[in-house]
Specification:
The structure holds 2 protein chains of 2 kinds.
Chain A (H helix, E strand, L loop, with lengths): L1 E4 L7 E2 L3 E5 L17 E9 L4 E7 L3 E8 L1 E6 L4 E5 L2 E6 L4 E7 L6 E8 L9 E6 L10 E5 L7 E2 L5 E7 L4 E5 L5 E13 L2 E4 L3 E5 L3 E17 L1
Chain B lengths: L1 E8 L5 E4 L6 E7 L2 E7 L4 H8 L4 E8 L6 E6 L5 E4 L4 E6 L1 E5 L7
The chains are: A mainly beta, B mainly beta.
Chain lengths: 232, 108
């Protein structure tokens, strides 16, 4: 089964310094029917003005992933980390028993676009940890590239949940297949372009939530940049 | 010194209790290895929402001073308990640990 959530029907917020399009309830936006998908609780497509960001605030018991799409993000936390990441890089924070951090657009003249993803962890109360990784942008082309997973490697950030986040850039007319276990969920987010998935056409900003879809066929109707998440 | 007590939803920050915006009495003190909060607050939809999300709470105490920077203290509520007594109109929250931080020490 596939449920498509068009971008046009998604909530959007504009605070001047922050434009955000959350897929699920967040902040003052609360829809009891849109509070998550499996262990996924937050998927925000955020645009931050130059030099602006989120001041010091806490997190706990959440796996938080920031995927930079454009510009530069600066992360700082009470664990001693201070990292700037740009396109091709991912930040992952396991908040566990508590972490204080900030996130700012590190540029004084360029807008920052990033995907903010939150997932419930497999285990609560763990020691907080943070990691920044870099993946090979060339490997996005016509392939599903894992960038975050509980099966980590040099270019794949580890996450404390049984799941994998893939990114892909698919040329027009190209096709990819993905096989998921029957009890898994699949979350698809179109970053750019247009993609046909399981018979449904999705455009930039559209989301698809799938359950019991073991064989997923993805075809680019025009050049498409998208994120696919396999999660419980 | 001005002190503010807040309870927010950890996912997205929806406010459940804000001592600046509602009349309430609250106390907090160490208990065992954690902290016990007792809040006298009437039943409301916000309290109902808070209890429904008792494993996802951010509890804060902000202390604003005239002569030094604001100190924020965040309390980690893991498994609570978080309970409400209708008879006493009292909310109790047990926090496991806390982190004190000065926001001005983080770069912007």
């Amino acid at each position: 089964m596939i449920n498509v959530f068009p971008a046009a029907e998604r909530h959007s917020a504009d605070l001047g310094w922050l434009r955000s399009q959350p897929s699920f309830s967040f902040g003052e936006y609360y829809d009891p029917n849109r509070t998550g998908f499996g262990v996924m609780r937050v998927c925000n497509d955020d645009y931050l003005a130059p030099g602006r960001g989120f001041g010091a605030h806490p997190h706990s018991d959440m796996e938080i992933v920031s995927i930079v799409l454009n510009g530069k993000i600066r992360h700082e936390d009470n664990l001693g980390n201070s990292v700037v990441s740009s396109f091709g890089e991912v930040q992952r924070m396991s908040a566990g028993s508590g972490v204080i951090h900030t996130e700012f657009n590190a540029s004084e003249d360029e807008e920052l676009r990033l995907l903010q993803l939150w997932f419930m962890p497999e285990e609560r109360g763990v020691t907080p940890s943070y990691e920044a990784t870099k993946y090979d942008i060339e490997k996005l082309h016509n392939a599903l590239l894992p960038v975050v997973s509980d099966q980590a490697s040099d270019q794949v950030a580890w996450i404390g949940q049984n799941m994998t986040v893939y990114l892909s850039k698919l040329e027009q007319g190209k096709q990819l297949s993905y096989v998921a276990a029957a009890d898994r969920r699949l979350f698809l987010y179109i970053i750019e372009g247009r993609l046909k998935a399981h018979g449904e056409t999705l455009s930039a900003g559209d989301t698809a939530q799938m359950v019991q879809v073991s064989g997923l066929e993805l075809t680019a109707e025009e050049p498409a940049f998208f994120m696919l998440i396999d999660l419980p | 010194m001005k002190q503010t007590f807040l309870v927010k939803h950890a996912v997205g920050g929806r406010m459940f209790i804000d001592s600046n915006k509602q009349e309430l009495k609250y106390t907090f003190a160490p208990q065992g290895e954690g902290w016990l909060f007792m809040v006298d607050v009437p039943w409301s939809e916000a309290i109902e929402e808070l209890l429904a999300r008792k494993n996802e709470l951010n509890v804060f105490v902000f202390q604003e001073f005239d002569d030094r920077p604001t100190l924020k203290t965040w309390y980690y509520v893991k498994d609570g308990p978080v309970e409400y007594s209708a008879d006493q109109s009292r909310l109790t929250i047990v926090a496991d640990s806390r982190i004190e931080y000065y926001p001005h020490l983080y770069s912007t």
